[in-house]
Amino acid sequence: MKKQHDDSNNSLWPFEELPPAKPAQTQRHRNGAPAEGAAKRIEEKEDGRGGGEETIKPFPREVFARLAKDAEHAGGEWQERDYGPGYVGQTLFDTPASEDNTVTVVLPQANIGKVPAQAPVRIESTDGRSYLGIVVRGPFAEPDGIRGDSPIVVTTSVYGTVFLPDYHGRVQVLLLGEELGGKGGQLVPQRFRPLPKSPVYVLTSEEMARVLKLDGEIELGLAIGHEELVVRVPARRKSLWCRHVGILGTTGGGKSTTVSGLVSQLQRQGFATILIDIEGEYTTINEPTDDATMLAALERRRKEPAGVGQVTIYHLVGRRTANPQTKQAAVQPFCLLFEQLSPYLVCELLEMTEAQQERYLRAYDITKQILHELKISPRAGEDASWLLELDELEEGYRGMRLEHIYDVVRACTSLVEKVEGNIEFSSPDLKAASQTVIQKIKSAAKGLPGAPSSWRALQGKLRRLLNLRIFDNREAQPLRYDQMLRQGQVAIIDLSDTDSPQINNLVIAELLRGVHLHQDERYAQLERQPERQATPSSGAGQTQAVKEGKGLVPVMVIIEEAHEFLSAERVRQMPTLFEQVARMARRGRKRWLGLVFVTQLPQHLPDEVLGLINNVILHKITDANVISRLKRSIGGIDEGLWTRLPNLAPGQAIVALDGMIQPFLVAIDPTPCKLRMVD
Question: Where are the annotated segments for Disordered (predicted)?
Answer without folding.
Answer: 1-57
